[in-house]
DNA sequence: AATCGCTTGATTGTCGACAATGCAACTAAA
DNA sequence: TTTAGTTGCATTGTCGACAATCAAGCGATT
């Protein structure tokens, strides 16, 4: 059991350079001034471990075990667990402990329903709230992502980073702090968990770029309604894509329901 | 200072019977199986204190002081603070402590923008997801609320309780766990804080009942689009109502910005 | 043989004390 | 008088140990 864990570790570490690149990117751009306290650091570690599947979905979380593993007390660890619960990566029941969330078709549908609505709203607001500079920056970023993606075909992490970055910018552009908090802090880690564990990299890459460009163009034209519609469609397509993979993999090793 | 606190306490205690009624009602109907651990209990206490204004908006939270006041250690208190941050009642900065959130026009607008979108979505989903029994129950509840409200004119807590109850039922009717979590656990305490501290009880009471009835009727007719539209309008009207009070009170004792 | 109750083990919840960090007042120099 | 530096204090972050609660295994009883 411990041995198996080490094996999983080894596999994960091979992926780490790419991961770090992604995390660095995220940290640089996004509002993560965090790694100042020990709880913050271990939070990032465990978040990554859960999203990557290093800590299996549905498995029980043992506080003493994790404390030993990261070599710190249970106090900051519990702080980290509280935040993990906040972004729906674990579920706690009083006096019974915490479990990593299970992936399911129903959960995916619920999550993406919400994303459609919320990111649609973000687009609508962004169309009136973003400055011309911010919009130009996003357009420039899209081209940049496209070129790096062409250089490194098949590197799904780059696509992932680019996609997250685009959505992040638009959400920030809404200038609504509560909306930003929900999407960037509470929902996105779970979204990434579905995408990473379902191995998303497929043929949607180039299509996604086109859709991104159409959305930012609508925002640039200050057409909020169109931007909202396009974003909802974009996320809907993404959901169907993942749903296909999930229903297949679900039959393989019972991660569904 | 301590004396003033006692005075405030005395005033608050006078309101408590009504409060308990409200809380009981909420606990009975809503998913609050909580008060099992000490942290849960103190969480409810502090939540109430903040929403009621017993702990002033914008004031600093001292962990040792609160620990002494509620006669428990800092460990469960920090757990409670973590959850308070989750529902946006306090804001924490690392190594600097927590402050109670400030009420502002900008914050109100952002919050109600989000409510419009999310509760609109809830209505749309509820129109297809609620069972006939659930719908009938809500309709029955509305009449019940109306009669108790007529008996006790001016008792704002009853109106508050009835309003919260109605919205709660519709949100639950969406059957989307993430949506339910955001609205009922993360946003509603802040919404109540705005309403309570702005002293909302005015002439909107009877109009609100009519609007509620129209919404549930649309849901009963399985007309999701109409239900969504009516709910958005309903919340928008409520926002304007509070906004008026807030801008007035804001000028009086500077709670704005 | 099956079920109920008890006991044991482990896990979570809570506590008090220590360490580290940040804030503020005070001093001294320009 | 103002500003920079320093010192002291208060608050937060972290730690290890204890208490309460839950789960499971064993034994006794019907």
CATH superfamily descriptor of the largest domain in chain A: GntR ligand-binding domain-like
| Alpha-beta content class of chain A | mainly alpha
Q: Any idea what the radius of gyration of chain A is?
A: 19 Å
What CATH architecture label of the largest domain in chain A applies? Up-down Bundle
Number of extended strands of chain A? 3
CATH topology of the largest domain in chain A: Four Helix Bundle (Hemerythrin (Met), subunit A)
CATH class of the largest domain in chain A, please?
Mainly Alpha
Main pleated-sheet profile of chain A: 3 strands, antiparallel
Strand content of chain A: under 5%
Task: Give helix % range of chain A.
Answer: over 70%
So what's the oligomer here?
A: homodimer
How many domain units of chain A? 2
The ordered H/E elements of chain A are HHEHHEEHHHHHH
Q: Number of helical runs of chain A?
A: 10
Biggest interface in this structure?
A-B, 30 and 30 residues
In brief, what are we looking at here?
Two copies of one chain form a homodimer. Chain A is mainly alpha-helical.
Write the layout of secondary structure elements.
Two copies of one chain form a homodimer.
Chain A: H1 2-29, H2 38-52, E1 60-61, H3 63-70, H4 74-86, E2 90-93, E3 97-100, H5 105-129, H6 132-151, H7 156-173, H8 177-197, H9 204-220, H10 224-253
Antiparallel strand pairs in A: 1-3, 2-3
Helix pairs in contact in A: 1-7, 2-4, 2-8, 5-7, 5-8, 5-9, 5-10, 6-7, 6-9, 7-8, 7-9, 9-10
The structure holds a DNA duplex (30 and 30 nucleotides).
């Amino acid at each position: 059991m411990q041995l198996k864990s080490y094996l999983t570790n080894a596999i994960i570490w091979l992926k780490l350079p790419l991961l770090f690149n992604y995390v660095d990117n995220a940290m640089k751009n996004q509002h993560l001034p965090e790694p100042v306290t020990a709880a913050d650091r271990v939070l990032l570690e465990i978040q990554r471990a859960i999203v990557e599947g290093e800590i299996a979905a549905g498995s029980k979380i043992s506080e003493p075990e994790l404390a030993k593993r990261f070599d710190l007390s249970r106090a900051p660890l519990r702080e980290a667990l509280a935040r993990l619960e906040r972004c729906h990566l674990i579920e706690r029941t009083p006096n019974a402990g915490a479990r990593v969330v299970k992936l399911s078709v129903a959960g995916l549908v619920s999550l993406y329903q919400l994303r459609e609505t919320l990111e649609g709203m973000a687009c609508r607001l962004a169309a009136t709230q973003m400055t011309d500079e911010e919009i130009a920056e996003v357009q420039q970023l899209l081209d940049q992502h496209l070129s790096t993606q062409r250089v490194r075909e098949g590197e799904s992490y780059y696509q992932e980073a680019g996609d997250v970055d685009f959505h992040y910018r638009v959400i920030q552009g809404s200038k609504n702090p509560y909306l930003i908090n929900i999407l960037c802090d509470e929902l996105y880690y779970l979204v990434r968990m579905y995408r990473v564990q379902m191995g998303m990299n497929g043929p949607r890459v180039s299509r996604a770029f086109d859709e991104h460009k159409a959305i930012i163009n609508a925002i640039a034209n200050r057409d909020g309604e169109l931007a909202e519609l396009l974003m909802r469609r974009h996320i809907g397509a993404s959901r169907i894509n993942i749903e296909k993979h999930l229903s297949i993999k679900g039959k393989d090793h019972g991660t569904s329901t």
